[in-house]
Write a structure and sequence with these properties.
There is one protein chain. By secondary structure, the protein is mainly α. It has one domain. About 70% of the residues lie in helices and about 0% in strands. The protein has helices at about 10-15, 40-60, 70-90, 95-115, 120-130, 140-175, 185-225, 230-270. α1 packs across α7 (about 185-225), α3 packs across α4 and α7 (about 185-225) packs antiparallel against α8 (about 230-270). It is globular. It starts with 9 loop residues before the first helix and ends with a helix.
């Protein structure tokens, strides 16, 4: 940046865009802080959940006995695909598990898609209303992705208890994977806790890491357009277009991976060691 300019430097621009609108009234210093609520993540994730629910409900209301339209046909194909995946992975009743997986996929895709909006669009609109910080991709917030992975953890524990009954579930905690025995019980229990923790953390970190990296690349591309040179604008347009097209795959792939791992973890709860 030129000397004496009021425009932010590259580092200031990125740091500003990585700051959340939160209950502390200042930029968040930690990646995960349970004492602070990221209001932008909370509000946008809820609004996108409502939008996703409205879309699915709208498709359900349009279902008729005749030939479905393109919109209804696309939703029906998605529902059938998720249901078949649930049936192939979970060896049990999937009446509630398949809708959970469908919700994960659609909601995460909606949240990921926010990364395809122009980087400064919503933050600039927010500034008109006095909101100086705003991150528009909920899945680029580790608090959100870990919260979703905790729901998956709770679901897997719930189905583990439901299928194996409380006694069988607790017995498995102390008897797998090394087998039964008083000496082996502490080691079994420790490994079970590590397994549950590793699944939960990796599930949330995987989604967060990919979306955070994608968001950061968009910020770096945006800085090319601030060079005020013809080649800067050219690279800004070409790299931005190329990354946006490639990012569509990431948006869908991350939703698919989270959905499939949700089914895998719940499916494992139906099976014994």
């Amino acid at each position: 940046m030129a000397a004496g300019s009021n425009a932010p430097t590259a580092s200031e621009y990125i740091v500003h865009h990585l700051a959340h609108l939160n209950t502390s009234g200042a930029a968040q210093k930690k990646i995960v802080d349970f004492s602070i609520i990221n209001l932008d993540t909370l509000v946008l994730s809820v609004l996108l959940a409502v939008l996703a629910a409205w879309m699915l409900h709208s498709a359900a209301r349009r279902v008729t006995s005749g030939v479905p339209g393109r919109f209804v046909g696309a939703i029906e194909s998605l529902v059938e695909f998720v249901h078949e995946q649930a049936r192939s992975i979970v060896h049990g009743d999937v009446r509630y598990i398949a809708p959970l997986a469908l919700t994960c996929f659609v909601w995460i895709v909606f949240m990921n898609t926010m990364d395809l909006l122009p980087l400064d669009l919503l933050p600039r609109i927010g500034e008109l209303f006095g909101l100086h910080y705003m991150r528009v991709v909920p899945t680029a917030d580790l608090n959100a992705t870990l919260a979703m992975s905790l729901v998956v953890l709770g679901s897997s524990i719930y189905y583990g208890i439901k299928i194996k009954h409380p006694g069988g579930f607790i017995a498995e905690l102390f008897s797998a994977p090394f087998g039964k025995g008083i000496i082996l019980a502490p080691f079994n229990f420790a490994l079970q806790l590590i397994e549950y923790a590793a699944k939960t953390v990796s599930l949330g970190m995987r989604l967060f890491g990919n979306m955070f990296a994608g968001e950061l690349v968009f910020m770096l591309i945006a800085l090319l357009g601030a060079t005020a040179t013809w080649w800067g604008f050219g690279l800004h347009f070409l790299t931005g277009l190329g990354w946006a097209i490639f990012h569509i795959l990431i948006v869908l792939l991350q939703g698919f991976i989270f959905m499939m791992l949700t089914l895998v973890y719940i499916g494992q709860a139906h099976e014994g060691h």
